[in-house]
Design brief:
The protein has 261 residues and is of the alpha+beta class. It has 4 helices and 14 strands. Helices cover 34% and strands 37% of the residues. The relative contact order is 0.09.
């Protein structure tokens, strides 16, 4: 299993009021140490080129990067970038190891996906908790496609036990929940952890509530009414008490008294 930490350091040089030239340094580690480092460039938020340390070359990925590529073909430039990367990533690793030793300890996140809201304010809620360290990526997809609009988050919050939690929300105002998945990437996981919302559970819940409402609102009153009618009918059809034994006894006593007199 590959456990990795992705650290990004970036520098910006503002050119005028509308454009920005950017440089990104990326360092990746696993439990054995550093496994990768890259240096790339951007312009107005888009990748334009990167330094390929294996091929010892600067590779342009867009039209604006081609001009910079021509200026940076010198092998000495590549060597300077490689040395700078080693220095930066080494410093990042040292600080990280001294802070929480996260490269040797990792806790897998627990994920709970549910729905909430009322009528036109429905939303899905993806609760990710008990993970460590606090480097994590949570995103929404629908049928495999990323969803960006209507997404909000609490940010990463600490637990008392030293682990972390976060909650991501997806508004359903302009979409439905069919095929929506919450995806989690973390160094404790072997790949991506996915939780897909099951609409059946929500339908079952609605059916149960409807059945309970039907029973309390219609079936129970009808049942009680029938019981009352049956009880009333039993009371009206109860036979009169048999008084024949008492009459015969009284008649016998009167005859005996008349004979004695």
């Amino acid at each position: 299993m590959l456990a990795f930490l992705f650290i990004v350091a970036f520098f910006e040089i503002i050119l005028g009021a509308e454009h920005a030239f950017q440089q990104f340094i990326e360092c990746a580690f696993n439990s054995q140490g550093q496994i990768d480092h890259t240096w790339s460039y951007g312009y107005d938020g888009k990748d334009i080129m990167h330094v390929d340390l294996v091929k010892k070359a600067v590779i342009a990925t867009s039209e604006p990067g081609k001009m910079l590529e021509e200026e940076r073909k010198n092998i000495e430039y590549i060597k300077r970038k490689e040395e700078r990367l080693k220095m930066v990533c080494s410093a990042v690793k040292t600080v990280f190891l001294k802070s929480n030793n996260s490269l040797s300890r990792a806790a897998k996140p627990a994920v709970l996906l549910s729905s909430g809201g009322e009528q036109d304010q429905n939303y899905l809620k993806c609760v990710v908790q008990s993970f460590y360290p606090n480097v994590i990526r949570v995103r929404w997809t629908q049928k495999g496609r990323p969803v960006y609009f209507g997404v909000s988050s609490t940010g990463i919050l600490p637990h008392r036990d030293g682990t972390f939690q976060m909650t991501s929300y997806l508004s359903l105002i302009n979409m439905n929940a069919h095929g929506v998945t919450c995806e989690i990437e973390h160094l404790s996981l072997d790949g991506i952890l996915r939780k897909t919302y099951e609409e059946k559970s929500q339908i079952t819940e609605h059916i149960l509530w409807a059945m309970a409402a039907f029973f309390l609102g219609f079936a129970l009153p009808v049942f009680l009414t029938l019981l009352f009618i049956i009880w009333k009918k039993q009371q009206t059809t109860k036979p009169a008490e048999d008084t024949s034994d008492g009459s015969e006894t009284s008649l016998s006593l009167n005859m005996n008294m008349s004979q004695e007199t």
